[in-house]
Amino acid sequence: MAAQRIMVGYVELTEEESEELFEEVKKDKEVESYDALQALMEDFDSRIIEPETKPLKEILDEEAPSEEVNTGTRYIEIFNKLEEDSSYRIKSSKQD
């Protein structure tokens, strides 16, 4: 079964993200195809969770050690917008 792009709310997932979501949902729900996954996602919405990056120098009053600039990991959180239901968090493939 070939991967396809899934829409969740206003976010169109990449094929990698769609495949990861499919694997997560398949464990939790009775979803056997991408068409079934897309139909299920009609009741879901998503948001992008940006990594919080604060340099140590801002947090510590004292002399902070030098650190590498790390952008962190961006995730996409997928949740049911109509009722309390399972939510999913997948790693975004679009990391800047």
> Main beta sheet, described?
3 strands, antiparallel
Residue runs with pLDDT of under 50 for 5 or more positions:
none
What series of H and E elements makes up the topology?
EEHHEHEE
Question: Based on CA inertia axes, which overall geometry fits?
Answer: elongated
Helical segment count = 3
Number-wise, the strands total 5
Radius of gyration: 17 Å
What's the mean pLDDT score? 84
* Overall helicity: 25-40%
How much of the polypeptide forms β-strand, as a percent range?
15-25%
- Strand arrangement, major sheet: 3-4-5
Oligomer: single chain
Coarse structural class = alpha+beta
Features:
96 residues, alpha+beta, two-stranded antiparallel ribbon, 3 helices, elongated
